[in-house]
Specification:
The protein is an alpha/beta fold. It folds into two domains: about 200 residues, Periplasmic binding protein-like II (D-Maltodextrin-Binding Protein, domain 2, 3-Layer(aba) Sandwich); about 90 residues, 3-Layer(aba) Sandwich (D-Maltodextrin-Binding Protein, domain 2). Helices cover about 45% and strands about 15% of the residues. A five-stranded mixed β-sheet has the order 2-1-3-10-4, with helices on both faces. Strands 7-6-8-5-9 form a five-stranded mixed β-sheet, with helices on both faces. Helix 5 links the parallel strand 6 and strand 7. The longest helix is centred in the first third of the chain and has 26 residues. About 45% of the residues are buried.
């Protein structure tokens, strides 16, 4: 057998092998889903400009919704206004704190969670320099966003775990994270609930951290994605296109070009990409807080229900599955979509 024949034989065999292997890999690779959204464009509300909803911003700016035939207009609003708009049809999706969505659902609104990007409670209680222990907050004022929302529940839980009766504190409804920090700096409150992203800022201001819930990794449901149940049933491909876009936006936020993500955050936070607070927000949300999968931990929903039950016993008996439609996330995970997305960004 001459050398030329051997070379040609093995060369041809290698080509056949690579062709078969490539075909097998293509068979195992989840097919790219072609969707035809029933409704486009749609509007998606988000309720804070602090960086917590960066997955939505990224999905819009990188064109990930459009990859699935969907045009999404992001709308900045307050939580209550956003939920009201969702109920009335003014927006089709909302990216908001889970307790408010769940409260609206319990009150009769046709709203269900589709997923969430934050699986842990990420709050801390910060205080003035002269307050060094949680017990000193009895009879004092604590800044929150709204009564009954994530911030209120988190403060109550943290105080209770620290041995302080949460009913002995005055809760002042101030607004979002930046507004609560201003209230604390000005002295209008003795303490304020802050995101753990603000730890360095709080230290620079020589304030104290009384309780850090984020470092305890408590299962939670933060930054929920929701829509009306009627809308998702009438527009299944629109809903799937939205969730796929959010999954991809979430993945790029975690794994994509840092300067690119910071530029997107700067646009929506209305600041410069080199602003120290933006950089800290990026490092916290993109690198530490945002989950790989937007599935909601059942324990997180159960925690919220338990906390809400302390103020309102009519919550007793409600179950996590009454608030969360996990079918879409489960479908995408089963198809291997999440793994496919993350491979694109490696």
């Amino acid at each position: 057998m001459n050398r030329t024949f051997i070379t040609n034989f093995f060369g041809a065999s290698l080509i056949v092998f690579l062709t078969i292997a490539s075909a097998a890999a293509q068979e195992n690779k989840p097919p790219r889903q072609k969707l035809n959204p029933e409704k486009s464009p749609v509007r998606a509300a988000y309720v804070s400009s602090s960086g917590i909803y960066v997955a939505l911003w990224t999905a819009v700016e990188k064109g990930y919704f459009k990859e699935y035939g969907l045009t999404v207009e992001p709308v900045y609003t307050r939580t209550v206004s956003g939920i009201q708009a969702l109920i009335s049809g003014g927006v089709q999706f909302i990216h908001s704190a889970c307790p408010q969505i769940m409260t609206a659902r319990k009150a009769g609104a046709d709203i269900l969670l589709l997923g969430a990007t934050l699986p842990y409670n990420l709050y801390v209680i910060a205080s003035r320099a002269d307050i060094t222990e949680p017990k000193q907050l009895a009879g004092k004022r604590v800044a929150i966003n709204q009564l009954g929302d994530t911030t209120h529940l988190s403060v109550r839980f943290a105080l209770e775990k620290a041995g302080v009766n949460p009913d002995r504190v005055t809760y002042v409804q101030v607004g979002g994270t930046p507004e609560r920090l201003v209230a604390l700096e000005s002295g209008s409150v003795e303490a304020a609930l802050q995101s753990a992203q603000s730890l360095e800022v709080i230290k620079r201001l020589r304030m104290n951290i009384l309780v850090n819930l984020f470092e305890r990794k408590l299962p939670y449901c933060g930054a929920g994605m929701a829509a009306s149940d009627a809308f998702t049933k009438a527009n299944p491909q629109t809903t799937e296109a939205f969730v796929r876009g959010m999954v991809k936006g979430n993945a790029y936020t975690r794994e994509g070009n840092p300067d690119d993500v910071k530029g997107i955050m700067a646009k929506y936070m209305k600041t410069d990409a080199k602003d120290q607070r933006l950089i800290e927000a990026y490092e916290f949300y993109a690198r530490r807080a945002i989950s790989r999968s937007p599935d909601i931990p059942v324990q997180g929903l159960a925690f919220i229900i338990d906390e809400l039950s302390f103020r309102d016993r009519t919550w007793a008996g409600w179950k996590p599955e009454q608030f969360y439609n996990s079918a879409m996330i489960e479908k995408l995970e089963k198809q291997g979509f999440l793994e496919e997305v993350y491979r694109q960004f490696r």
